[in-house]
Amino acid sequence: MLKLSFFLSLLFLLASCNNANNTPTEQIQEVFYKEAPVQVTHFELFVQLNDHRASVFEPSFGIFAGIYLRQDNTTSSIRSFEQSLGVQHAIYAYSITLGQAYPIMFVLEAIANNKTPLITVIPSHYNIFDISLIYDLAHEVGRFNVPIFLQFYPITNDFAVLPSEYISFFIEAVQVFRRYAPNIAIIWGFDSHNITTASHFWPGQEFVDWINLTIYADVDIYGQHNDIFAYIDLFSLNFQRQAPLMLTLGVSHHNFENNRYFVSQAAEKLYNIYTNLELYPRIMAIIYQNYSTTDHEKNSGQNYKVNTSDIIQNAYASAISNPHFITNIEKESQSHQNTFVSSAFQAIEYNGNFFIPYKALIYDLQIDDIGIFNNITTEIENTLFVSISDINRILYIDFFINRQNNMLFLFYN
Question: What domains sit in the chain, N to C, each tagged with a CATH number?
Fold first, then answer.
């Protein structure tokens, strides 16, 4: 036992002698160096559209705020709504079925109040492809030569037609509209239920000025809203290079299935959606759907009205009071030099240098001769990156940082 104790003491002494040349400070520094984690900061990545040509009514900056009151489509009711909330909107929205009378008074009153009308035209169940009705409507729309957004035949689950039939009629209708009503911006749209199949109905960039996604944040019986940002991400990434984007939105605070109200949750959800739209620079308009689908007989439906609760009303008013939202058409500028699209990839800051993923060069910058970067990639967090300094040296692309919101913008020199 004594021999074992002596042997252990000898080993401890030898180990102490081996480390005798290292000072305590050096030993601490060595341990810290080995254990310190790699510092990587992630940034949302945005890329400038090269040689961008602005679409009809496209603002140079910001988002048009719009409103739609389904139950009472009159400008007087919209003005009353705005006054009660202390807000303004740039767009007043209205909906008709093809063949119905054109809402000329709504349009003229909207223009008189310095607002841009948005008319959604949905198909008639009896005359879906009646081109004569398009001629009638086009003459009415162009009659007073005032600016109008026209959303024609948005795609819904009820739209049971072949893509080829739809595309052919859409193109023919647009040609008629542009001939007799050159004052309009054509909107091609669809709802979130059709987001994976909508591209089958795409008529082509030549015939579309804006693209709209209609989406609702419904609330379940537990007060949870469906995640609409997954849909917005997909919408933005798939269509942001084709035309400026528009959202038509409703956020529910009442699920009629169990007759419960979730006011605070709805207010938070609504405010969160509006404040995060800056992450989608090509979304340049949002129309709020202020109505209810509740059916007392069927004990079902959702309530999207913001003016039924002070909490939701205040959240909505606070959201669109942000200067990023355009509430008057006079604020539109014609300069479009710095139009950006969002990337599916993230940039990083690593050891004081900035990098973007190698795949972003392919899919976002759309570089043809990608091979010139193959020998200057850096693997970080199991992903290949290229330093922005190398990109700038080869392609004359620079960047600026918004550290407050962790955004990195690439632009052409």
Answer: 40-49+339-412 (no CATH), 63-331 (3.20.20.80)
